[in-house]
Design brief:
287 residues, alpha+beta, six-stranded mixed beta sheet, globular
Length: 287
């Protein structure tokens, strides 16, 4: 099994060698209280393997802790990664079952229990559905973010490979529907389709995120874009990495937090956070 490094180009690899039968680990994550998750890919099919959780007794994760603080948890993740590697010849990549539970037996050996699992929940399908196999995959940037080509155009694909990301994709779909219905969709990269695999919705397909990072010279344009979105009654959150300057002007990478306010006074109160955030971004851009 090969581990796909960040921004792994499958297109380049295909040009160099025959990758049929090659297994790639796209992602691995030890999620507090939920389990250890591993995403594998082979021959255009993927499977997510879920194993029992392992965290130190009494340990509570904190985002402010450095990565080194989680060394034991990472070792627990790596341990089962090695176990999975010994089982590669028996793991089934049939495109039908997208999930497997790694079950430890009494003799400390392991077996896989397969399942066809709904990855995206509470997600209304309001645009077309594209089969994942119809997208030419070109790059894996993470378990969540893939890149590809669909009908001759570059696209970004977001896969709900574990529940937190499935929740994010559902929120993005709702937010995209909202901003488009309110006439401000042009400030966001377009959600072009929901993505399915074997009749199960597994993610969304977005217009490729193409643009440059913001600079101090973009201050007025970004402020005006946010103000226009709020004039339409919409509040949303973002980080500096979500702001792109494109040929079509200012655009935001995510609408997952977007919500509509009928009460404009309530919107103005909540929007104070946004304006403080923007001021902080541009005031400290050269730091």
């Amino acid at each position: 099994m090969e581990f796909a490094p960040p921004i792994f180009s499958i297109a380049k690899l295909k040009r160099k060698m025959d990758i049929s039968g090659l297994t790639l680990q796209i992602a691995g994550e030890n999620v507090f209280a939920k389990g250890r998750f591993y995403m594998l890919w082979r021959d255009s099919n993927f499977i997510v393997i879920q194993a029992e959780p392992w965290w130190r007794h009494g340990f509570v994760p904190d985002d402010t802790f450095p990565i080194s603080h989680y060394l034991e948890e990472h070792r627990a993740l790596w341990h089962l990664q090695e176990v999975i590697q010994t089982m590669l010849d028996t793991i089934v990549f049939d495109g039908e079952n997208n999930w497997a539970y790694l079950v430890r037996l009494k003799d400390n050996t392991y077996r896989m229990v397969y399942k066809k699992r709904r990855l995206i929940k509470n997600c209304q399908i309001w645009t077309k559905v594209v089969e994942l196999d119809d997208i030419e995959l070109t790059r894996f940037t993470s378990g969540l973010c893939w890149e590809g080509i669909y009908e001759g155009k570059d696209v970004d694909i977001f896969i709900g490979w574990q529940d937190d990301w499935g929740t994010y994709i559902s929120a993005e779909s709702r937010g995209q529907k909202l901003v488009q219905s309110m006439g401000v969709g042009h400030y966001f990269f377009d959600l072009q389709a929901h993505v399915s695999k074997s009749d199960v919705i597994v993610g969304i397909m977005m217009e490729a995120f193409v643009g440059r990072c913001v600079t101090p010279a973009d201050r007025s344009a970004v402020f005006e874009a946010v103000a226009d979105i709020q004039r339409h009654g919409i509040f949303f959150l973002f980080q500096i990495c979500d702001i792109y300057i494109t040929e079509r002007g200012v655009r935001f990478a995510s609408a997952s937090s977007a919500k509509y306010h009928r009460d404009r006074d309530a919107l103005a109160e909540e929007a104070k956070f946004t304006w403080n955030l923007l001021a902080n971004i541009f005031n400290h851009m050269d730091d």
